[in-house]
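Weekly modeling sync, notes
Attendees: S.R. (lead), two postdocs, one rotation student

Agenda item 3: backlog of single-chain predictions. S.R. asked that every request posted to the team notebook include the full sequence so nobody has to chase files. The rotation student volunteered to paste the first one in as an example of the format we agreed on. Action items at the bottom.

Example entry:
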Amino acid sequence: MQVSARNLIPGVVKKVSIGMVNAEVVIEAAPGVEIVSIITKDSVERMGLKAGSEVKAMVKATSVMVVTD
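Predicted structure, as returned to the notebook:
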């Protein structure tokens, strides 16, 4: 598959919590760095996602904000 998004972050699924309709997928991008995605339960099942699955998190945003204290 090819996509135009440049923000593809490789990682490994750490945990999948399935609800009635949606699921929370926790991806470990690097030691101690997690990305959390909420996707449909159907997508989790169709993609066969489970702990240990190698995936890429695709981020599509029109802006990224930087904040400091």
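Discussion: group reviewed the output briefly. The two ends are 40 Å apart (CA to CA).
Action items: rotation student to repeat for the remaining queue; S.R. to check formatting next week.
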